[in-house]
Structures are given as C-alpha cells and as structure tokens.
Amino acid sequence: MLKVIFRPINIYTLMWCAYYYKLANTSEGTWLTQLLLGVILVFSLVITVRVIFDGNNPIYIRGLNVLLILFCLYGMIRIVGNSYLPNEYGGLVPPESFLKSILVSILPIYVYYYYSLRGIITHTWISRWSFAFLAIVI
Hints:
The chain is mainly α. The protein is built from six helices and two strands. The radius of gyration is 17 Å and the shape is globular. The mean pLDDT is 84.
C-alpha cells in the first residue's frame, strides 16, 4: 500500500498541488514556493530528457520537442539580451519569467506522458486525484 502511495508521480502531483495551493494563498516569492518549484522543475527536466531520448515517440511528442527547443532558445535570447517586455498592467516583465512560464507549462506534459506510458496513470488514478485538483480550484 505504501509503495503505491509513494510513487514518484504521486509525490510529483502532490508537490504541484502544494505549489498551486501555496501560490494561491500567499505571494509568489516565499521560500517554500521557490523550493517546490525548483524540485518540480528538476524532476520534470529529468523525465523530459528520458522521454526525448526515447527513440520511438509519437508525432505530437516530437512536435512538442521542437516547440520546447524553440521556446527555450527564445527565452535564453531574452535572458542574454536582458530585454524587459511590458505587461498588460504597464509594468515590466523580467526576461527570465518567460522561460520559467514555458518550463512550468510544457515540462509536466512530458512527466504525465511518461507515467501514462508506464501504465501508472490510469482512469482510476485520474479519478482519485481529481478531488485534490478540485479542492485547489475551489
């Protein structure tokens, strides 16, 4: 029973839930949210590399690979160029926020794809976690 509870995908999803719950209730700059995001991104990068170098990916994952590379190149150019972009409220968005947003948005796709291929993410798994997702949204 504990082996099922402490699977990496369950811990990963729990960290995402904690990150979004903490983010919704406090400011983004707390040390806990930064730590959670760092652990999430490192885990996501490891799984992403596994998926990318797995030779037999479907066309949509290969397309996602190209999209990820292009977005990362653009984000690196913005960081090196130190270019701030205005947001809709008149403030300036720091250059690293684009790359962070892209990584936070795209990398979880690879993680959930990886574990669904392994048969860990099933209809039952999604049904169980939907209550946690619903609790964060409400």
